[in-house]
Amino acid sequence: MTFTVAALYRFAPFDDPAALRQPLLDLCAARGVKGTLLLAREGVNGTIAGSEAGIAAVVAHIRALPGCADLDVKYSAAAAMPFQRLKVRLKKEIVTMKVPGVDPARDAGTYIDPADWNAVVDDPGTVVIDTRNAFEVGYGSFDGAIDPGTKSFGDFPDWWRANAGRFAGKRIAMFCTGGIRCEKSTAFLRSEGVEDVAHLKGGILAYLEQVPEADSRWHGSCFVFDERVSVGHGLVEVGEKD
Q1: pLDDT of 225 strictly over 70
Q2: Is the separation of the CB atoms in 54 and 75 below 8 Å?
Q3: DSSP conformational letter for 155
């Protein structure tokens, strides 16, 4: 059996995320879906795996939640179930930045489709920043991208504030695994007064899925948050880095 893996997120206003938890937990359990889903007042985030029909049912349920019709989902396949159990957790943030008032649903930067991303990477006038942590960057990244060297995403605001002067007046383009950290980091930069800021729509996973390897500006593999460890072009499982 091949398992369907869905990496998903959506910034949306949930007035009472606790009320959403049990129905979602019950549906996943009934459909044999495993993985982790996070719920917060700012939306939903997670990666789950199961049968194609089971994942479809859970995704449909989440799309029906307030503000989630445009839920961002990236699908891939795994030969074995990549998760041991199911967790649906309540959090303060679906991706932790610890900067009050940042609202990606309202303030995220410009989206750049994967098909247009090479032109961004190739543009000497654009500063391309990898918003992932140093461990993830060690698996692979884009040509010429700046690695902030952070241990966690929560370190990114301090790194930006310490280095913002280097990038004054320049166009900023950022990327991450699936797009969620990019949405929050672009909203953060806009709150810091940066006007020209964009990010890779759907993240590295969308790029590796849609852009042919022969045309790619990506080197290495992309770390993912399940037992596959990392994936390459076409979202083919790669595993541990050498």
Answers
A1: no
A2: no
A3: G
